[in-house]
Specification:
The chain is α/β, with parallel strands linked by helices. It folds into five domains: 154 residues, no CATH class; 106 residues, no CATH class; 121 residues, no CATH class; 216 residues, Rossmann fold, CATH 3.40.50; 237 residues, P-loop containing nucleotide triphosphate hydrolases (Rossmann fold, 3-Layer(aba) Sandwich). Helix content is 45%, strand content 17%. The protein contains 38 helices and 30 strands. The strands form eight sheets. Strands 20-21-19-22-23-18-24 form a seven-stranded parallel sheet. A six-stranded parallel sheet has the order 25-30-29-26-28-27, sandwiched between helices. Strands 5, 6, 7, 8 and 9 form a five-stranded mixed sheet that branches. β22, α24 and β23 form a beta-alpha-beta unit. α2 packs across α6 and α20 packs across α21. The longest helix is centred in the N-terminal third of the chain and has 21 residues. The chain is globular.
Length: 883
Amino acid sequence: MNTSVQRELIVIIKPEGGYTLDWQRVNKSWDASSVDWQQDWYQGYLIDPDQALLVLGATKKRVELSVSVDYLYKVASSFVRCLARNPDLEMLREKAEAVLKDEEQQALLEGAPYLNGAEHLNKNWFDSVWNRLNQAFSIEMKRYQGSVSEYFRSKNPDFHFVGKVYFHLVENKREEYPFAFLATYAAEPSIRGEGKHLPLKNALVEYGENSQKLLELLSTVHKAARQSPFVSGLVETGEIFHPIGLCPDEAYTFLKEVPLYEGTGILCRIPNWWKRKTASLRMTVTIGTKAPSFLGLDALLDFDIKLSLGGEKITVEELKSLLSEAEGLAFIKGKWVEVNAQRLRETLTAYEEAQKLMEKGDLTLMEAMRMRLSTSKTFNMEENNYEVEVSNGEWLETVLSQLKRPESIKPVSSGPDFKATLREYQQKGLGWLYTMKKLGLGACLADDMGLGKTIQVLALLNNIYFSKEEKVLLIVPASIIANWTVEINRFAPRLKYHVLHPQENKNLEEKQVDGGVYITTYGMVVRLEWLKEIEWDMVILDEAQAIKNPGTKQTKTVKQLKARNRIAMTGTPVENKLADLWSLFDFLNKGLLGTAKEFTAFTKKLKETNDGYGRLKQVVSPFVLRRLKTDKSIITDLPEKIEMKTYSNLAKKQAALYASMVDELERKLETVEGMERKGLVLAALMKFKQLCNHPDHYLGQGCYAENESGKFERLREICEIIYEKRERVLVFTQFKEITLPLAAFLGTVFHHEGLVLHGGTPVAKRREIVERFQGREYLPFMVLSLKAGGVGLNLTAANHVIHFDRWWNPAVENQATDRVFRIGQQKNVVVHKFITTGTVEEKIDRMIEEKTKMALEILPESNEGWITEMDNKQLLEMFRLTV
């Protein structure tokens, strides 16, 4: 039976070993068992996340999981396997501790897929997870009445525990028997599993030949003997109890059977050269030793091919001669190496393919980068063949290392008359963008929201403009044109710009394009065909997630633009969906990730390979710069509360109503005076605020269409980024009547219901609302009326605050912000103050910012009453709509 449920459970990685779960909409159907399992595990998570993680690792995987849950399953099951490695687990019970080995941690890191919050995966995260899981296991064992094996087998009937027997294989100096074998057993319990090892023959004395204890000890050996003639022979002759010499063929048999032994519960200690595969044949392709004659993805790079065996260089003739050798272990050039005919032939084929490439000439930088994604395709060999290694030459390694570590790039000037002082990390971001431009590579600036992507790009544009007046096309959502123009005027006043949009420029016919920045929208790019005819020096996309769907006309048109350099700006993690990642790179560096068909084929194999995600990250990471507010090692000078003004334009209907309201106010002002005039002005101010929020707010209607309000459109864009990261936001308004319309609208953005709190909310219910918002279940937003939400609430689960409309009293707004920014807050808080450009909102904000004498002296005491003291001319100037 199939149950059509259009959602799946996903994992969001949090700092310090944390994780959260949420439901995500998907276009697929889950069967009933998958639906039930996801729901049950989610309920367990809401009760105790650490316990739920332990249960996940102990459970046999019987249902399909989302990519992120599947990865968490690998993490948790690794913990359980670490526990099971302890031969004294049953005796130690709650005192046992699992220890994650460095190589296991590295494998989990390298095998991590693209998932939300993956940037938090590091050594500290895994150490913290292991600590939490050890505590969860200890608590579980204290209350569980049965044995440890009964506990784990109740979750997974096929669960394997290790026994106390160890097999050791070491090199020996005797020529006839160059290897030695010894079986040992763990004689004493150990909390960390590092027990004292004694030769297995001692067990005959300790337990007696026919004792039950001896049979239990040897149970894993007998399991192995049933599957391995080699071990069976050792048991039958009694050699299993004594140290013995092995010839190379016997040692080779042993090494190949190690997975079999470990599957039966025997722990094996073997030479590192076998574990690390350094004994095998390897072909190394080194690309980009010398600097190319020109830069860009088409730059031609030199490359070289070498063959090595056991780390020693060999010739192709020596390789061919090895093919005539018998399979097994051979002692060549002072090292033991594996002779595997099939792998030798595959590597020889790959070498011959590489030679053909060399005959054609140098590789382009794009071909070199793509080679990492599909060495099998390049060299005509099977997937997961580890005998071919692609490495960077000196020049390429230096360049890619710089791009991955912006702090190593020399500082770059922001250009003349730049009015902002960049923070240290922003200065490094400018250097990175400048270097990417110089190299001719497409760049994705994906810094966390609030870190100032706009100011870094403006610094780059200001630098370029005064060194060479380049033609730059900046494409943005219509709702943030105002943000860009305000920021340019404020920080780069000498930077020439033009707005190609009807809201600011009616003349949109084809024109002479000179140096400067041309700002337009994604929608206008489709309409203005002549933009595709221009040879732009640079095309920049803000909110670049707008081109994530490769099939839309908008995306196709943007990708048709001609540009020597390309920059994409986005606050959302670009890797959350691999299809989105491909579309973004198809714009930035076309061909780097192959065609859509090739990339889809690659992503389908990711679950089957151990290193697929790692290879993809190697290709993508040099082109993406993403810094997080939480990363104190990179961002040391960031305030814990980041306040930013968020500008939006009036929509067409808003602008028409606004103009008529100004005319009406002008007429009425001529006929009133005294208290009546004061009441008229305050009432008008309230109406203008309502209109800036939404026409329906002012008109008292109930539709609240998104496209009729610039603020609603901007609210969506900001909240979509918050939702992608599964963070939480408080939205403040001074109007109770708009709290429910805002909540309804936000529900469509977050695909979750939120909470509302205003003056009419009963006091008894407030505590319940706060507890729900602070709980583990993802409740993404709360809409609060400013006065009701401004006092006595602790809402530290949120790390975003939006002041949807302004109180114009900093003390009142700060008091509301402090619901989030207070004791217990462990995250940086981003505060957005919404302002509609050209309106009374912007003008009052400017007066406050400029600290006029009137604002300083009157504003804190009497809120907005000071406005009524203006004369009619000043009032109309303040209310009148300006562009």
